[in-house]
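queue> pop job 88
queue> type: inverse folding (structure -> sequence)
queue> payload:
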């Protein structure tokens, strides 16, 4: 179709002239597609240049290096170009490049303010070959400016360098080349090496002679600045140790023919490599040829000093332009096209552009916002490609772009230190839109590298602005592809510093403003596809990212690699496809296999999703895993353990999912102590669906440490190299022992001991189980001695050598629960020689802890030493509401970040008589402090309980412990809930009538917490009338379960409330406030406290009640006895009585004072139900003596001690009474005993069990079949 499209838009559509033009045109065209285009598109006239001056007249006979100056108001059309290279062309008026084949050679073009450079228009694009060639050798120095400069109020002097096309502030450039689109598409079938025919997914209008790129469909070439050859030079295109070169397989080709309506392309030469065309690994094909070409001269290839295009104007519209030999290596800001310090660039765009060959940082934006980059194709470029420079760039759009082969620079040409590890898209500010892009063959695909604040030329401008890129959310990241990457497809880590170095940092999206913490925002990263990435599909150090409907195929060691609390929802993980790749020279394996076996066992792990070794908790919801099975070369599983073993892992969760030819979980087969497999250890992943683990309500997948072998509720899985355990009340929690710098607990005399060489290890023995290594948990020293063990357990802690002999105990040790939730604790016994004294410091309370009088008196607020062992109760702060307890990032739209638990630790300093040595291992007996005396309850959360009509999907479990004498000073309820209802679910306690008792946080997959236990709630629990209900995000009933006692015969009972009538008491009293006395009392307030004396939503005695409205933590309200503030005589009465209730389920502590005296905190000493709650009105009685009242009562003042804002409390029936004692009654318990339950019907049980004899009698290995049978049973629930 070359040279066939004329200008039908120069005449009116539908006229006889237009019909003649179309007919004449059609005779010259091949096929009917172009005719259809001409007949159906309404077009407008081209720019009328008949009154413009002709270049050949205004600038005749120009000599080489002549400068040209087009004055303001002067309009010129380039009718004829000189055959020589001109000097600088300055456009102050208008310069039009007509639709004719010609080449303008110049050392630079400057479009000044009010100047315009025009070639084509949206309705009249350029159809011939119009070329601008920027000429010149590199100056010395290379950043020398010959094109002038401008001064910006913030950025200072902006220099324009040399050999460039410059658009100054106020200038305009409009370049429109004809679009022979689409600019790129994908293969519809595989093309083999040596073939010449491509079958495409989309019909194209490409032409014979057009240049194409075909993206690689294999793993990337090997390049990494840290790997060097024998001469000390970095490898850039070799597989180290693999016997030869392995080049990138992206190819450059020429169109020889177009057929099949534009869906089949025949190339002029055969392809060198296979290009796969089966989903999800479909190679892209991009068009590189454009009608308008801006390029550097031929000498640019040797000097790496091409042209550059810099614009400072929002009036920049570029479409259908090819930029080649562009970019000036080592020179900051000299990029192929650069939107530079425009700020508001709304209206500027690049569409349908191509950037082939040698370009550096193809399309760059620095301090420019709202630029649209769409349908561009980049190929064979150097350094980072699509590039946001400073971190101030916002509101830009990157849509439907193709980037193929971003090559690394060598050290000579580095602009950024990371240019030898190039990314396809370099993102310094996430507040931009990224949609429908495909990138291949780079070090990283999409690299989120946000600085703390904008840097570079934006530093001064934003130094005091509220702009923090690491805290800003991304409005849309959707339907993007990354493949054939050396490292990761998406990288959210290793972020930019002010001096362009990298630092490990997290993306923490939050609500505005960003200069202080307001609240997190969940960022959805949707429909992302990664395939054939060497290391992984995604590395994300994002706090609140929600990865949804992603695809990860053959993504090296792992598909996803996540830190912090992130959710991966509805992902498809494909471990192996039919893509054979390209065999390495001299090797029988494909590149994928060889990469996974390079050098050390570190490369042998292969899996779909992997939690970061220092992070969590990742939640994987409803995934599909296919073809993850171990081979002689790889250890493989859908969910895989960390390479760093137990190092800092916390609870990660797998919920639901399908497993097709895949082992669900694979733990790395790593041995820390040679010759003793008992010391293998690794991280863990929470499985939470019976379809996965065969355990109703979920279970845990853990490593092969001896401790797990000793538990009766854990089963070893050979193919996963792990144990599967039932759920238990205390979740798997990490405890870390960090020894002081002067401690060396390893026996240094045994230097041949392999464990000594590895740094030693720690053994933890369950108390009361003896000192056998068969039931010990072994933890390695890895930034502290680490153990991932069930919480709510007790342990003897020993530091050991390889022979199992006890060594020194530490003279200084910090002990932290690094992943604990509220209510989780450890009881520890650490041996020390007799006569040792201790200083035990509580980091959270910033106090030294005292020694307890006995082991029974141990609490988290003291320690005990019996001259043999130091006993500690280690927990997080059980009363601190700021300790997050939810699992997963989403809960009612609010993120639940993992808190900094370091402040909840304790430090032990031991002063031993000599060395802190001790005798042979002696594990103490198990013990339970008085404050840990508890009763256990449990409920299976089932859909059939909530939906009797037959809904059977979903499940959950909740564990409850009631501590009647908690160390907090009042009864406490601790719970740990697990469910698979997903994000935004709500959890509540209800009585047997469906009345809400309390709200629990549900989390994405569960939660745990401690709450003060109200007597009326405790009463429901022991009477078997308390239910847990999970409501789905859409408001529908999800799961429901009745809380039942694990051992009903031993449960402790609260004293029931007895013999009190709220509205009509049988005893004498003096009314202080009720509806009948309201006219006698005066209500007043201060500090944002208000009274509402007409609250009618809840009227227990048939009349309005008082509503306290406390706007902030120091607000209070007053109740005066009358207008004159006179007093009420106390007389015979000894106590102030009133009833209180909370309108909503929140825990609030009320305080009361009288006669402007000191406050009394209304706690369980004075509250019949121990705490105020929303379930029922509760009686409060405070002795008048505690309030300092002797003879007269003039005023009562109410406030709060909860530190909360906008607190409402209902008050009624305020009176003086003769006794401060709260009457009680004895309860008769009626809680049923817990037994596992399910929604499985009897017919289903019969169907599944009928399969068992056939399996057992088949003479084959029955274990996998029986496990599958168990899964089938749960799947049928």
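queue> result:
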């Amino acid at each position: 179709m070359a040279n066939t499209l004329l200008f039908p838009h120069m005449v009116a559509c539908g006229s006889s002239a237009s019909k003649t033009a179309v007919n004449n045109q059609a005779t010259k065209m091949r096929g009917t597609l172009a005719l259809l285009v001409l007949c159906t598109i309404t077009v407008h006239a081209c720019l009328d240049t008949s009154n413009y001056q002709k270049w050949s007249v205004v600038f005749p006979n120009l000599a080489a290096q002549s400068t040209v100056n087009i004055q303001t108001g002067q309009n010129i059309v380039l009718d004829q170009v000189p055959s020589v290279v001109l000097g600088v062309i300055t456009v102050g008026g208008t310069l039009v490049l007509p639709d004719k084949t010609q080449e303008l050679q110049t050392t630079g073009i400057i479009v000044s303010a009010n100047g315009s450079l025009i070639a084509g228009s949206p309705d009249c694009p350029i159809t011939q070959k119009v070329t601008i060639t920027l000429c010149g050798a590199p100056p010395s120095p290379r950043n020398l400016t010959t094109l002038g400069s401008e001064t910006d109020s913030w950025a200072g002097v902006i220099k324009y360098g040399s050999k460039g096309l410059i658009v100054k502030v106020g200038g305009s450039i409009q370049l429109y080349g004809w679009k022979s689109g689409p600019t790129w598409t994908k293969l519809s079938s595989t093309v083999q090496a040596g073939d010449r025919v491509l079958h495409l997914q989309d019909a194209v209008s490409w032409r014979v002679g057009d240049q194409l790129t075909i993206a690689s469909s294999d793993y990337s070439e090997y390049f990494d600045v840290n790997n060097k050859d024998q001469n000390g030079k970095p490898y850039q295109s070799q597989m180290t140790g693999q016997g030869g070169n392995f080049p990138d397989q992206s190819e450059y080709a020429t169109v020889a023919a177009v057929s099949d309506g534009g869906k089949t392309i025949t190339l002029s030469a055969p392809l060198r490599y296979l290009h796969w065309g089966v989903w999800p690994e479909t190679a892209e094909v991009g068009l590189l040829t454009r009608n308008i070409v801006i390029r550097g001269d031929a000498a640019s290839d040797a000097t790496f000093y091409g042209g550059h295009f810099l614009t400072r104007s929002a009036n920049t519209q570029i479409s259908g332009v090819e930029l080649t030999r562009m970019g000036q290596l080592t020179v900051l800001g000299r990029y192929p096209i650069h939107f530079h310090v425009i700020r508001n660039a709304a209206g500027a765009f690049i569409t349908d552009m191509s950037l082939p060959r040698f370009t550096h940082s193809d399309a760059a934006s620095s301090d420019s916002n709202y630029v649209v980059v769409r349908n561009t194709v980049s190929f064979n470029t150097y350094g980072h490609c699509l590039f946001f420079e400073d971190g101030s760039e916002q509101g830009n759009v990157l849509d439907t772009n193709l980037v193929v082969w971003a090559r690394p620079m060598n050290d000579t040409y580095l602009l950024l230190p990371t240019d030898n590890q190039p990314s396809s898209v370099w993102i310094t500010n996430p507040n931009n839109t990224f949609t429908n892009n495909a990138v291949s063959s780079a070090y990283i695909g999409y690299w989120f590298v946000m600085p703390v604040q904008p840097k570079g030329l934006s530093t001064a401008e934003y130094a005091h602005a509220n702009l923090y890129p690491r805290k800003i959310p991304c409005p849309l990241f959707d339907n993007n592809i990354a493949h054939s990457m050396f490292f990761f497809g998406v990288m959210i880590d290793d972020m930019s510093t002010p001096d362009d170095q990298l630092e490990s940092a997290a993306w923490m999206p939050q609500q505005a403003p960003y200069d202080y913490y307001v609240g997190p925002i969940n960022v959805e990263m949707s429909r992302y596809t990664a395939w054939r990435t060497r290391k992984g599909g995604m590395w994300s150090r994002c706090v609140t990212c929600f990865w949804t409907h992603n695809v990860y195929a053959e993504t090296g060691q792992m598909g996803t690699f996540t830190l912090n609390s992130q959710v991966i929802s509805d992902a498809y993980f494909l471990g192996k496809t039919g893509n054979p790749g390209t065999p390495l020279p001299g090797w029988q394996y494909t590149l994928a296999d060889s990469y996974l076996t390079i050098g050390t066992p570190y490369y042998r792990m292969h899996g779909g999703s992997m939690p970061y070794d220092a992070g969590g908790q990742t939640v994987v919801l409803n995934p599909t895993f296919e073809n993850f099975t171990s081979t002689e070369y790889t250890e493989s599983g859908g969910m895989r353990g960390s390479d760093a073993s137990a190092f800092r892992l916390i609870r990660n969760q797998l919920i639901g999912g399908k497993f097709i030819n895949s082992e669900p979980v694979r733990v790395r087969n790593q041995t820390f102590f040679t010759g003793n497999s008992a010391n293998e250890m690794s991280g863990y992943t929470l499985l939470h669906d019976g379809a996965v683990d065969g355990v109703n309500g979920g279970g845990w997948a853990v490593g092969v440490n001896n401790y797990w072998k000793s538990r009766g509720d854990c089963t070893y899985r050979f193919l996963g190299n792990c144990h599967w355990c039932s759920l238990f009340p205390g979740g798997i929690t990490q405890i870390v022992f960090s020894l002081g710098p002067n401690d060396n607990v390893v026996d240094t005399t045994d230097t041949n001991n392999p464990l000594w060489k590895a740094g030693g290890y720690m053994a933890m023995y369950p108390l009361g189980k003896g000192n056998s290594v068969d039931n010990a948990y072994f933890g390695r020293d890895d930034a502290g001695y680490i153990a991932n063990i069930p919480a709510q357990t007790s342990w003897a802690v020993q530091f050991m050598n390889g022979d199992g002999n006890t060594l020194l105990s530490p003279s200084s040790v910090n002990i932290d629960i690094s992943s604990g939730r509220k209510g989780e604790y450890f009881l520890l016994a650490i041996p020390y020689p007799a006569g040792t004294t201790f200083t035990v410091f509580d980091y959270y309370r910033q106090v030294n802890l005292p020694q307890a009088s006995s082991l029974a008196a141990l609490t988290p607020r003291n320690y005990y030493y019996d001259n043999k062992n130091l006993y500690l109760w280690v927990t997080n702060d059980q009363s601190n509401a700021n300790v997050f307890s939810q699992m997963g990032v989403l809960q009612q739209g609010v993120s639940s970040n993992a808190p900094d638990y370091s402040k909840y630790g304790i430090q032990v300093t031991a002063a031993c008589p000599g060395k802190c040595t001790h005798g042979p291992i002696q594990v103490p007996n198990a013990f339970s402090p008085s404050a840990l005396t508890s009763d256990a309850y449990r409920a299976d959360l089932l859909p059939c309980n909530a939906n009797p009509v037959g809904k059977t999907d979903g499940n959950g479990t909740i564990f409850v412990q009631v501590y009647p004498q908690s160390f907090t000073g009042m009864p406490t309820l601790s719970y740990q809930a697990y469910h698979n209802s997903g994000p935004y679910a709500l959890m509540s306690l209800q009585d047997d009538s469906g009345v809400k008792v309390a709200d629990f946080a549900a989390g994405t997959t569960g939660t745990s917490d401690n709450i003060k236990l109200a007597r009326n709630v405790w009463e429901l629990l022991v009477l078997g009338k308390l239910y847990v209900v999970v409501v789905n995000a859409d408001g529908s009933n999800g799961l429901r379960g009745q809380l039942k006692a694990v051992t009903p015969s031993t449960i402790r009972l609260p004293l029931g409330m007895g013999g009190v009538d709220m509205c009509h008491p049988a005893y004498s009293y003096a009314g202080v406030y009720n509806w009948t006395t309201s006219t006698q009392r005066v209500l007043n307030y201060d500090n944002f406290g208000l009274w509402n004396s007409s609250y009618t939503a809840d009227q227990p005695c048939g009349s309005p009640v008082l509503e306290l409205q406390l706007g902030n933590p120091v607000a209070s309200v007053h109740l005066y006895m009358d207008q004159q503030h006179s007093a009420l005589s106390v007389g015979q009465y000894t106590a102030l009585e009133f009833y209180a209730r909370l309108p909503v389920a929140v825990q609030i502590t009320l305080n009361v004072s009288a006669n402007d005296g000191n406050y009394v905190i209304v706690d369980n000493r004075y509250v019949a139900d121990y705490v105020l709650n929303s379930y029922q009105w509760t009686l409060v009685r405070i002795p008048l003596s505690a309030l300092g009242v002797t003879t007269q009562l003039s005023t009562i003042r109410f406030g709060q001690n909860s530190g909360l804002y906008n607190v409402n409390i209902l008050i009624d029936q305020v009176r003086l009474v003769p006794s401060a004692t709260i009457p009680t009654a004895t309860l008769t318990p009626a809680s049923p005993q817990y037994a596992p339950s399910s929604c499985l019907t009897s017919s289903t049980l019969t169907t599944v069990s009928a399969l068992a004899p056939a399996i057992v009698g088949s003479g084959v290995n029955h274990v996998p079949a029986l496990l599958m049978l168990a899964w089938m049973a749960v799947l049928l629930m």
